[in-house]
Amino acid sequence: MTESILRSVIEDLAEAGRMADRAFQGWWKELGELGTDPTRTRICLVAAIVVPLATTMALWLEAESVWWAAISGYMTIMSSGAASIRKGLLRLAGTIGGAAVGFIMARWLPYDHFALSLFLAGATMLGVVAMQVSPHGLAWLFGTITSILVLLEGLNSPLQVPYIAFYRIFEVGIGVTASAIVANLLMHWHADPAPPVPGWRHLLGAQWPAMLHGMRAAIAVVVMMQVWIWMDLPQVTEMCISIAVVMSAPVIGDGSLGTRHAVAERSLHRILGCFLGGIAALACLALQIESFPWWLAMIAGSVWIGMHIQNGRHGVGYLGTQAAFVFIVTLIQGPAPPTSIMPGIDRFVGISGGMAILLIISLMLWPNETERKQQREQ
User: What span, in angstroms and rounded, lies between the C-alpha atoms of 111 and 98?
Assistant: First the structure.
C-alpha cells in the first residue's frame, strides 16, 4: 500500500515537472511571436488602453480598490466589441448577484464558522457546476467569487459589509465600462455564437461528472476553512477564490483523469503566472518610477504582453492571464506608483495555500491510472 502511494506521488511529481517544462517553453515561444499577428496585436492594444483608462477612471471616482477596476477591464476584453460587452455584462450581473447574496448572508454567517463553511462549499459547488453546464456560467462563477469575497473580507468587521459589497460592484462597473468603450472603438462588432453547453438537466445522469467536479471543489473549500481556523493562516479570501477559479476548468470525458490533469495544469499555470508576474513587477518597482504617465506606461506594457500570451497558440494562455493579473495587483496599490512588492507576495501566499489544499484533495479523490485501468476492465 505504502509503495503504491509513493509510486503515485513520484509519478505525479514527474508529470508536474513535465507540465512546468512545457509551460516555460510555451511562454518563451509566445514572447518570440510578439507583434507577428495583426489580430493579436489589435487586442493587445485594446488591453493596453483599457487598463490605464480603468485605472484613471477609478482614481478620479475615488474607488476603494483601484486594481479591481483595472482587472475587471482586462478580464472582459474579447475578440470583438459585442463579445466584450456580453462578457462584461455577465461579469457585472454575477458581481451584483454575488454582492447581494454576500450582503444578506453576512447578517448571520460571520458569527458561525460551521454555517459559513457550509455556505462557502455550496456556493463554490454551484459556481463550478454552472461553469460546466450553463450558458451563463461566467455570471454564476462571479456570483460565487463575489459572495465569497464579500463574506470573508467582512469577517473581522461585519459592519463594513455594505461598503465592501457596494465598492465591488462600483469597481467592476468602472472596468466593464472602460472595456466596452475601447473595445467598440477599436475592434470589429460581430457576435460569435455562444459555445454549446449541456444545460442544467441530467445533473444526476449524463452530467454527473460535473456534479462530482463541484463536490471536490466544495470539499477543498471546507478543508481550507478548517485549516485557516486551526492555523490562523493569512489570505483566506485568496485561497477560496483560487480553488473556485481553478476548479472551473472544463470537465473532460468522464470527469476523472482528464479533469484531474486539467485542474493540475491550471493550478500550475496559476502559480507560475503569479511568479513570473511578480518578478516583472519587482523589476519595475526597482526602477523607482515616480511619474504618473510612466507608471501607466509600465502597466500598459505589461498587460500588452499578458494579453498576447493569453491569446496565444502554445497552450499557456492562462499563464499570461495570471501574470498580467499579479502585475496589475502589485503595480496598482493607490493613486501613485507603489513602493512595495508586498501585495504581490501576499497574493502568491494565498494562491499557494489554496493550490496546496486543492492538490491534496485531488490526489485523494481523483482515481489514479491503476484504478482507471481496473474500472475499464470491469
Answer: 20
Single-letter residue type at 256: S
Helix pair 38-60, 66-75: axis angle to 10 deg:
150
* Domain hosting residue 280, numbered range: 7-188+208-369
CA dihedral 137, 143, 144, 148 (to 10 degrees): 160
Q: Model-level pTM? A: 0.80
- Distance between CA atoms of residues 17 and 24, nearest Å: 11
Q: 178 falls in which pLDDT band (50, 70, 90)?
A: very high
C-alpha cell read off for 256 = 476523472
pLDDT band at 204 (very low <50, low <70, confident <90, very high): confident
Residue 201 belongs to a domain: no
329 CB-contact burial (10 Å; exposed 0-12 / middle 13-18 / buried 19+): buried
The CA distance from 247 to 239, in Å, is 12
Residue 195 belongs to a domain: no
- The single-letter code of the amino acid at 194 is A
Q: What is the pLDDT of residues 205-226, one digit of tens each?
A: 777 777 877 887 788 777 777 7
Measuring CA to CA, which residue among 341, 290, 364, 350 is closest to residue 148? 350
Closest to 47 (Cα-Cα) out of 263, 305, 294: 305
Distance CA 102, CA 116 (A): 11
Question: How many domains would you assign to the chain?
Answer: 1
Instruction: Determine the residue type at 151.
Output: L
Q: Is residue 194 part of a domain?
A: no
**Considering the domain boundaries, does residue 197 fall inside one?**
no
